[in-house]
Amino acid sequence: MLTPSDLTFLQEKGITKEQIEEQLASFKNGFPFLKIKSSATVGKGIDKISAKEIEYYINEWENYLQGDKKIIKFVPASGAASRMFKDLFSFLDGKSNVPTTDFENYFF
Q1: CA distances, 20 to each of 2, 3, 14, 17, 33 (Å)
Q2: For the whole model, what pTM was predicted?
Q3: Which residues are within 8 A (CB) of 73 and not within 5 positions of it... i.e. 6 or more apart?
């Protein structure tokens, strides 16, 4: 199943043949369900950025757009994720560069 070049590549990444076989077995047999401790909130997996950080990231984005980069669209893998990002996609696809809806204002 693994070619010699696969094994060389994995070795360069520090992954043993046994490790990759265990990982592939997990995909084949499935993963156990995780017990959720709590929802993600600020301080528990979500960072709240300051006004200064917001300005920094906006400047980074503006600088990024000045380059020869190609902007592509993120496509979530699940229907739930698609619904979760629906409002943001509407904003990105819209004609306004500033938030206009209650959701957009709250998000930004």
Answers
A1: 10, 13, 11, 5, 21
A2: 0.38
A3: 89, 92
Tell me which residue of 104, 75, 74 sits closest to 91, measured CA to CA.
Answer: 104
Q: What are phi and psi of 14, to 5 degrees?
A: 80, 25
Angle between helices 4-12 and 17-29 (to 10 degrees): 100
HSE value, Cβ hemisphere, 13 Å, CA-based, for 69: 9
Q: Which residues contact 47 (CB under 8 A, 6 or more apart)?
A: none
Cα radius of gyration rounded to whole Å, the chain:
21
pLDDT in tens, 32-77: 888 888 888 999 989 999 999 999 999 999 999 898 888 887 766 7
Whole-angstrom distance, CA of residue 48 vs CA of residue 54: 10
Q: Which residue has the tokens 């993120």?
A: 74
